[in-house]
Amino acid sequence: MSITAVLIDDETNNLDNLGRLLTQYCPEVQIIGTAMDAATGKQLITGLHPELVFLDIQMPGENGLQLLQQLTRHDFQLIFVTAFDQYGIQAVKFAAVDYLLKPINTLELQDAVRKAIVRHGEKSRNTRLENLLQLLQRQPFKEEHRIALTTLKETRFLHTRQIIRCESDNNYCNFFLDNSEKILVSKPIYEFEPLLKDYGFIRCHQSHLVNLRHIRSWIREDGGYLLLNNGDTVPVSRGKKEAVLQALGF
Questions:
Q1: Architecture of 3-136 per CATH?
Q2: What distance in Å separates the CA atoms of residue 250 and residue 248, rounded to the nearest whole number?
């Protein structure tokens, strides 16, 4: 199965390199246009209706995220390509939108293209992209933000207030929700700590990340642990104790 693509990057050598990699390692991708700025990229997406867009985040003038906010159609698959791990990537990770860091790893490129083709074949709305755009538009209103959690079967979109706690399970992470549901996500817990720290979550233990709004009390027995509103108890490591108590207002 083939897929049409537009490449958007402000540097010619990056466009040429990505084009060569796609030709060599992803022959199922048909490149139908390239652009070096947001305005031209918008014209290509609007006029050519690509099924897949490779988009650089940081560009002179309008960046890739600003370009997306100007579009009226969101039915294409999206892969960000960026040299800056910190620039806008938190929001991209929060929405579970695929991204590649420069220099591009060919195996990661092939995997991202494979997933894009599968999603395109499902002929459904790109809810990941829509969630990212909502996140960007509602930055001051964190209560309205939804995080995308990828399981083996689906991608779930949850308001952060629904999450009581996260618990490590080797290279996976269990999310415990306020409706007693448990979701196993195929990423390790350390990837979620930076995504959730601005939403009232604190890492109280190597294996535990807790939503402060769901903490009922601090129990001083047995070295100290947290009692949550759902009755769960969560240990607090010695090295995290001071930060936890400070977050609780002690």
A1: 3-Layer(aba) Sandwich (3.40)
A2: 6
Percent of the chain topping pLDDT 70: 97
Strands 52-56 and 3-8: parallel
Round to whole Å and give the CA distance between 108 and 100.
7
3-state secondary structure of 1: coil
CATH code of domain 158-247: 2.40.50.1020
Residue carrying the six token digits 């990057």: 9
> Distance between CA 124 and CA 112 in Å, rounded?
18
Least confident of 10-19, 78-87, 169-178, 197-206: 78-87
In this structure, the chain runs to a length of 250
Instruction: Kindly tell me if the per-residue pLDDT of 238 is higher than 70.
Output: yes
Asked if residues 80 and 59 have their Cβ atoms less than 8 Å apart, the reply is no
Q: Is the whole-model pTM more than 0.85? A: no
CA distance 217 to 165: 15
